[in-house]
Amino acid sequence: KKMGLGTHANRMKIEREPRQHSSPPRPAAREAARSTRLGWYCRPAAPAHQRASSSGLTMQIMLLSALLVTPIYGQTGQLVDNKGEFDTPGPGYWYSAGGSERYFEARSKCKWSAPISPHAFWGDSFLYTDKGTFNQFWHDAGRDKLMVRQCHAPDLDREGNIWVIRRVGPFNTTGGAKEGEWHAMKFHEPIDKRWVTGRFLARVNAEGTLFASPPLHVHHEHFSNQECLPSYVRASSEVLGTLTLSRIFAVHGDNYFMDADGGVTGNAYKSYPEGFGKRMEGVYYHDNRIGDIRPPRSPVLQWWTEIAYRYTLQTPKRELLHMSRFNLANFFDNVHLHVPSDTGSIFWMAWSMPADGEFEANWCHTHGAEHIIIFKGDPSKFALGRKYAKRNPWTPKSVDNVDDVANELILSAAEAGISYCKGRIQWEGEEIRMTQINCKPWKFKEGDVAAIVSLYDPVRRPYTNLRQHFIFRGDWFPDDPDIVDQRPDLRFENLKFCGENPSHCLSQVSLGLKIYMVVVNFGCLPEYYTAKAFVGWFLLLAMLASMSYTCYRLLKRLCKQLCPKIMEYPSRFKLPTYLPVQWQAETQPVFSTS
Q1: How far apart are CA 558 and CA 542, in angstroms?
Q2: pLDDT exceeds 80 at position 365
Q3: 20 to 30 A Cα–Cα from 409, which one of 168, 344, 507, 542?
Q4: Which H or E run contains 177?
Q5: What is the pLDDT of residues 25-34, one digit of tens each?
Q6: E strands along 155-230, which residues?
Q7: Which residues contact 389 (CB under 8 A, 6 or more apart)?
């Protein structure tokens, strides 16, 4: 099942060491560990006696019914053996690495520039750190020890398209990412208006050969329209401003293809269909976070980050827009979900479509799951919203059997006339790979509701990552080609944090909402309601008023105690008293003192 790639010549072969797994802990120990782990994040998940369950007989009936109604309502997104494409229509460009060989061929003809420091190349916008948490980007890990080379190469197949290729490094790492040592860099660059038609983002050695994962894992790599990296915002004055979020495109470590389908190349290289392009104008922002996931103190591994995009100045027939819908969770914990380790669980979110349009491709970002399902309809109309509502937007709901729940949701949605697409989750050993989703064709109107569901079972799969991100992503084009100029939010606010209410996704985080998040929610991002922002602003004013009044009282008390002493201070010294000068005619003045 090749995904448009027939060679592994550009992928470094790394021998992987098998990991040792401990058996699942005993129930009592599991419950204690779970309570300890979840206690401080937001709010704990529902207790065990409240977990949803389903009868085996009912599930068998539901499954049989689902199989009967699936051809009418459902889209399963199953693969067939036709060069890696899904059932007609194809799933979109995201699931193909076709054309990557031509990129490598164009790159091989590059005439590289002389090396220069990133600081000199991008100015003060370039930052590099190997520290995390709240001091990230306060600590310089040696940006002046890195060098940048670039080349501009014409695309070999698309006339008028140019590849802009930058290579940054060398980075020298010795493992330890799983213990907290990650390498992050960021910069921004002003540019003239252009249309991106493809991109390549990867870690390479000195000869340009790609590294696989492991040993190097991409936590994230973003191209954005504005500064929206949470770890940087936390550590800068921008934390006081309004945070808006967007993506031009993004790369994550879970989007690698299976080795047989292209491996790392399938994640690094994407080419948009002919006639499509993404707008870059004014300035773009780049950031990434890369980890050497070998054990700490491994032999030194030297690598470079290669950043490339293909562009044209010609306006495309269709402007391609991005859409991301992110889970809600604790902002200070890098917006991670915390999956219970001792039971299956379900997590889901819903959103409404921003305008009339059609998806070109859909995918998701996850750290591993048992089921991922997208429903093209309102969750309140079937079992998802009616039965599986969570206690809060950021805590997964415990369930007994994830397979039964998935089947129940599919059947219930089909009965409500709601179509779905089911992801094919792929594991390679313990490494999560590309989750294959085919939701095409998917045309929608502004305000249409959709939902995405993830089901986890660490008991079945003990190596499931218990700290999860869950993001729906898609590239789409609007029915009205002029709407982007009329509505800049389609570009600059295309990433939203969503809960269960599709009308209350969070696209802007004002200072008032940040105050509410910290004081009321203890760091957890809330769904957007005007009242919550108002409460945050009220709390801010109350705190400022309280601080002002406290300062006033303190100064008054200090003045009351100190002013009399200050007034008495000059009287401690006896100064001489002088009488007025007495003048006598035609004589010298006479002075007298007492």
Answers
A1: 24
A2: yes
A3: 507
A4: none
A5: 333 333 333 3
A6: 162-173, 183-204, 216-224
A7: 397, 500
Helical pair 402-415 and 56-73, crossing angle rounded to 10 deg: 50
CA distances from 395 to 32, 55, 330, 371, 561 (A): 17, 25, 10, 17, 54
| Host H or E run for residue 36 | helix 27-38
Predicted confidence at residue 34, as pLDDT, reads: 39
Residue at token pair 């809060």:
392
More confident residue, 134 or 255: 255
The side-by-side arrangement of strands in the sheet containing 443-444 is 443-444, 357-366, 470-478, 321-327, 495-498
Under 8 Å between Cβ of 54 and 405: yes
Position 138, amino acid: W
- What is the mean pLDDT of the segment spanning 291-316? 97
- Dihedral, 321, 327, 329, 334 alpha carbons, nearest 10: -50
For 247-259, what is the mean pLDDT? 91
Kindly state the DSSP code that residue 124 receives in the 8-state scheme.
Answer: G
503 — pLDDT class (breaks 50, 70, 90): very high
Distance CA 511, CA 239 (A): 8
CA dist list (Å): 282 to 192, 203, 306, 325 = 6, 27, 22, 25
- Report the 10 Å Cβ neighbour count for 464: 20
List pLDDT tens digits, range 452-479: 999 999 999 999 999 999 999 999 999 9
Element (H, E) at 135: none
Pairing verdict, β 318-319 and 276-292: parallel
Which pLDDT score is estimated for 574? 60
What tokens does 2 get?
């090749």
DSSP bridge partners of 420 = 375
Handedness of CA 227, 229, 233, 239 (dihedral sign): positive
Half-sphere exposure of 140 (CA within 13 A, CB side): 11
Q: How many CA atoms lie within 13 A of 462 on its CB side?
A: 9
> E-strand spans in 267-343?
269-271, 276-292, 301-312, 318-319, 321-327, 337-338
* CA–CA gap between residue 86 and residue 78 (Å, rounded): 6
Maximal CA-CA distance, the chain: 134
Show the CA angle centred on residue 174, arms to residues 171 and 178, nearest 5°: 105
The pLDDT of residue 27: 38
pLDDT attached to residue 581 = 64
DSSP-assigned beta bridge partners for residue 91: none
Start-to-end CA span in the chain (Å): 115
DSSP string, 210-277: BP-TTTEEEEEEEEESS---HHHHHTSGGGGS-EE---SEEE-GGGPPPGGGTTHHHHHEEEPPTTEE
C-alpha distance from residue 141 to each of 131, 185, 219, 305, 378 (Å): 8, 10, 18, 16, 48
What average pLDDT does this structure show over 354-366? 97
d(CA 150, CA 165): 5
* Secondary structure (DSSP) of 462-511: TT--SEE-EEEEEEEEESSTTHHHH-THHHHT-EEEE-S-GGG-BSEE-H
